[in-house]
């Protein structure tokens, strides 16, 4: 069951709120303090990407963030409702040059940062939307030295 | 926290002191500042990131955009940063090879390659 669910209008100013909520819930769930910066950055990247996709596709529904606390891990799912190209369509369009204009390639850079930061990450997408699922191990109650 | 920006001139360099969070919401302000400086003829920029609490890929995109602009005028864009959590993002994305990153403004201002 989700510990916390957050829906926000796809606007840049709300991404910070999502970061703060995710970091607060992650801390409570027992994610190591040293990793909280990574959680904050990864969820921010995922939300930024979702906001951008909603804006570019004219999608008016909110971005969804689901924070799930399990026994041994803490998971975050960020979902968007933007139609994604199928693999075949994407191949037909050809892959974008990685060395293209950097300001236009921010979505890709966001995903690059997420994959660099998070060991357990899964990106899925179809014509009805996309989902980025990330998880981090939690540590049990503090052990005395 | 919002983004704070201030600029000062040191010799032929323009130092942009950035504070707060650079993300999808605030990055456009930094982009405007860099564009304005280049349009006004400042082609040797030092971006002091010691006061930055958060930086994401949108912020990286703006810095790369700034670098492109100054390079078009044979200028330079140097960063000042000692914070491990910020440096990590440059490392993950391979941008440590693109930006000269200095440990102090003095060092960045004196650097000539």
Automatic annotation (TrEMBL), chain A:
Keyword annotations of the record: Kinase, Serine/threonine-protein kinase, Transferase
Residue ranges of domain Histidine kinase/HSP90-like ATPase in the record: 8-136
Region named Disordered: 85-107
Any GO molecular function: protein serine/threonine kinase activity
UniProt feature, compositional bias: Low complexity: 86-102
InterPro entries recorded: Anti-sigma-factor_SerPK (IPR050267), HATPase_C_sf (IPR036890), HATPase_dom (IPR003594)
Classification via Pfam families: HATPase_c_2
The name this protein goes by in its record: Anti-sigma regulatory factor (Ser/Thr protein kinase)
UniProtKB/TrEMBL annotation, chain B:
Listed InterPro entries: Anti-sigma_ant (IPR003658), STAS_dom (IPR002645), STAS_dom_sf (IPR036513)
Pfam families according to UniProt: STAS
UniProt keyword Phosphoprotein present: yes
Top-level taxonomic group: Bacteria
Signal peptide: none
Keywords attached to this entry: Phosphoprotein
Gene Ontology terms for molecular function: anti-sigma factor antagonist activity
Similarity-based family: Belongs to the anti-sigma-factor antagonist family.
PANTHER family reported for this sequence: ANTI-SIGMA FACTOR ANTAGONIST TM_1081-RELATED, ANTI-SIGMA FACTOR ANTAGONIST TM_1081-RELATED-RELATED
Function comment: Positive regulator of sigma-B activity. Non-phosphorylated RsbV binds to RsbW, preventing its association with sigma-B. When phosphorylated, releases RsbW, which is then free to complex with and inactivate sigma-B.
Protein name, entry field: Anti-sigma factor antagonist
């Amino acid at each position: 069951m989700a510990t916390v669910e957050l829906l926000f209008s796809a606007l840049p100013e709300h991404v910070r709120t999502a970061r703060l909520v995710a970091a607060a819930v992650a801390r409570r769930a027992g994610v190591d303090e040293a990793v909280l910066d990574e959680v904050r950055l990864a969820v921010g990247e995922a939300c930024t990407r979702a906001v951008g996709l909603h804006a570019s596709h004219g999608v008016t529904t909110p971005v969804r963030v689901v924070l799930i606390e399990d026994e041994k891990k803490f998971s975050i799912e960020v979902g968007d409702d933007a139609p994604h190209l199928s693999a075949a369509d994407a191949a037909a369009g050809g892959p974008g040059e990685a060395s293209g204009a950097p300001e236009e390639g921010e979505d890709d850079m966001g995903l690059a940062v997420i994959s660099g930061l998070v060991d357990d990450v899964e990106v899925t997408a179809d014509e009805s939307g996309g989902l980025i699922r990330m998880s981090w191990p939690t540590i049990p109650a503090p052990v005395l030295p | 926290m919002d983004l704070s920006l201030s600029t000062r001139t040191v010799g032929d360099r323009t130092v942009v002191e950035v504070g707060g969070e650079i993300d999808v919401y605030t990055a456009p302000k930094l982009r405007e500042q860099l564009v304005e400086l280049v349009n006004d003829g400042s082609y040797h920029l030092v971006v002091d990131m010691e006061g930055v609490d958060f930086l994401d890929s949108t912020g990286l995109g703006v810095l790369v955009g700034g670098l492109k602009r100054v390079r078009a005028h044979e200028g330079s864009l140097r960063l000042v940063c000692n914070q491990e959590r910020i440096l990590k993002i440059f490392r993950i994305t391979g941008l440590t090879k693109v930006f000269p990153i200095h440990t102090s403004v003095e060092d960045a201002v004196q650097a000539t390659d």
